[in-house]
Amino acid sequence: MFYYVDVSGADLKPDSFEELAMPLFDQLFNFARWMTQNREEAEDLVQETYTKALKGFSSFQLGTNFRAWMYRILRNTFLTSRTGLKVTMTVPLDTEEGGPEFAIESDTPETLMFERSNRELLQGAMDELPVNFREILLLCVVEEMSYQEIAETLSVPIGTVMSRLSRARRALRDRLRAPLQKSETAGIAKGTVAKGTNHGL
Fold it and tell me: Which one of 21, 93, 116, 135 has the fewest CB atoms closer than 10 angstroms to its CB?
């Protein structure tokens, strides 16, 4: 579900924070769960995110995107956590290889997999992606953020969002191709065996 909270003119008090932040809890936990790949770590991450956000609530700029602000705090908290530091030691987060890629693909690997309802396979492939690819796919596909919101969350230009998303989709497709082909081949073989058995009867 999409949440865009405009707090123009709001009085930034703790009760205002609770009203704005609590509807985002499930979304933030889902994002944290995908990023950490561990339920307990995700719970700790979300709790720390809310603690930091409440302490820094007075610095939130009126009229800006509260959801993107919360996601940015969660992401930065993750990147400074033990799990996040382990990831960043092996995968540079801001390295963008090659030039910009602005092609928007209608038949993306993630939509293909959702249509086939193979969530386990999709999650396995997502977990294997570098964190910078995993997070941008989650923000775009699962959280349904606009490019502008993603740019605000990741603190990068929209052009970077588009090029990184294109590379992430290609990386996900590469990881899904072999399992999909194997599954389809197994299905065909099973059908052939079944057909031959019936013919023998």
Answer: 116
